[in-house]
Amino acid sequence: MSATRLDGIITRDEIFTDLAARVEKLKAAGIDPGLGTVLVGDDPGSRSYVKGKHADCAKIGVNSIRRDLPVDATTEQLNAAIDDLNADPACTGYIVQLPLPRHLDENAALERIDPDKDADGLHPINLGRLVLGEAATLPCTPRGVIHLLRRFDIPIDGARVTVIGRGVTIGRPIGLLLTRRSENATVTLCHTGTRDLAAETRRADIIVAAAGVGHLIKPDMVAPGATVVDVGVSRGQDGKLVGDVHPAVWEVAGAVSPNPGGVGPLTRAFLLVNIVERAEAQLAARGV
Ligand SMILES: Nc1nc2c(c(=O)[nH]1)N[C@@H](CN(C=O)c1ccc(C(=O)N[C@@H](CCC(=O)O)C(=O)O)cc1)CN2
């Protein structure tokens, strides 16, 4: 048995086609959406993700605003870049690329973002709105995971979902999203304190692996026919990127998202969905 491929590239392309048409309509109505990024330092991974985000902007007609700071940037310099984007009318929304260098406080940076411009949905107000069930900008990777499952007709309502990883960009918010009435899943959130990870994954209809531990999920940890979403990335000894899911899982699972080529492209796509939705809300507020 070989699993169905939950293809993030095809899915991303579909989203971009839809977004490009929506951006055209916004521009015709006088709204010109812009995505901002704040990048601190020269981590090759972060640089490449930011470059990719701006390349995506060009594909769908969204303007790009970049604020790149040196690795030894001070808190004051970072705050100034954030304040600058908060005040810039050309910037519909923006992100601070994570992780920041260790001397900078990530939570303080996220809290300084104007919640109405928080394109990542990681500001405490947006996360709080999500907890309260209010309308909020939603975090991009969890949105991408849910979209991918729906796109490939994987049943979510009533499903037992085991999430591995409790990070703020994926693990914690995906639990909140999947337990909304609209998704209605039963979620178990596992982490380094989980006693028997294999027991938790074996009883899952859907596994979302976001631990960042290469090949953590082995075939004997997966129920036959289950869906496995591979979100985590780490670097192997040869320096190459490795996902959380062992390749042999494809022989046991019913559906697997490849990594690369699964959730990653959707993280980028949903950033632009958030920007376009924000611009559409501005248009609606004008009463057009
Ligand atoms: N402010 C944020 N920082 C970070 C986030 C985030 O959502 N907001 N997530 C990650 C990095 N990230 C986006 O920023 C991201 C990671 C991976 C991909 C992606 O498309 N990966 C490709 C493979 C890329 C490669 O080969 O190098 C894939 O999965 O196919 C996009 C975005 C941490 N920081």
TrEMBL record:
Gene3D superfamilies: Leucine Dehydrogenase, chain A, domain 1, NAD(P)-binding Rossmann-like Domain. This is Bifunctional protein FolD. Catalyzes the oxidation of 5,10-methylenetetrahydrofolate to 5,10-methenyltetrahydrofolate and then the hydrolysis of 5,10-methenyltetrahydrofolate to 10-formyltetrahydrofolate. The gene is folD. The keyword Hydrolase applies. Belongs to the tetrahydrofolate dehydrogenase/cyclohydrolase family. PANTHER family: C-1-TETRAHYDROFOLATE SYNTHASE, CYTOPLASMIC (PTHR48099:SF5), C-1-TETRAHYDROFOLATE SYNTHASE, CYTOPLASMIC-RELATED (PTHR48099). Residues 139-282 form the Tetrahydrofolate dehydrogenase/cyclohydrolase NAD(P)-binding domain. Homodimer. Its EC number is 1.5.1.5, 3.5.4.9. It comes from Gordonia defluvii. It holds the Pfam family THF_DHG_CYH_C. Residues 6-120 form the Tetrahydrofolate dehydrogenase/cyclohydrolase catalytic domain. NADP(+) binds at G165, R166, G167, V233. Keywords: Amino-acid biosynthesis, Histidine biosynthesis, Hydrolase, Methionine biosynthesis, Multifunctional enzyme, NADP, One-carbon metabolism, Oxidoreductase, Purine biosynthesis. HAMAP family: THF_DHG_CYH. Pathway: One-carbon metabolism; tetrahydrofolate interconversion. InterPro entries: Aminoacid_DH-like_N_sf, NAD(P)-bd_dom_sf, THF_DH/CycHdrlase, THF_DH/CycHdrlase_cat_dom, THF_DH/CycHdrlase_NAD-bd_dom. The keyword Transport does not apply. It catalyses: (6R)-5,10-methenyltetrahydrofolate + H2O = (6R)-10-formyltetrahydrofolate + H(+); (6R)-5,10-methylene-5,6,7,8-tetrahydrofolate + NADP(+) = (6R)-5,10-methenyltetrahydrofolate + NADPH.
